[in-house]
Design brief:
alpha+beta; single chain; Endonuclease I-creI; four-stranded antiparallel beta sheet
Length: 157
Amino acid sequence: MKKTDLAYFAGIFDGEGSVTLARTQRSSPKQRPTYTLRVQVVNTNEWICQQLRFVFGGNVMLHRKTEGNHKPDYRWLGYRNVDVSFLKAVFPYLHLKRPHAELALQFDKHKTSGGYKSHEYIDIESDFKQLITGMNQRGKTQKINKALKMESRPKLF
């Protein structure tokens, strides 16, 4: 894939994308929650979401139906392996979502599949969840970035 295409997708993700940690289904009420990485882009242009699906995989769905004068919007949603490969591919070109992607990739390194999860392991996942949730809240990005020692943003020009 051309660097210009990756830069284009990074720009779309910077403006229209998000990184979240979704709670996984627990097999019993006594089990503490664990989380899985989710990367998504929501846009009124279905073609953009379909391009992401074609290039990186994942799924496209109608996010919100048309109401009044609003256009319908579509959601491209990656899955665990798609999320990570997408973030690694666009990472060099990200500006606004770079700290989010960096934290998501750190979370992926931490993540193990299956088996028993210790309390310490689950506490670390909960810390990742709180950090990413805080980064996604409006007006709190600078406070979270300082806590993560990511104060300096990449220079645009």
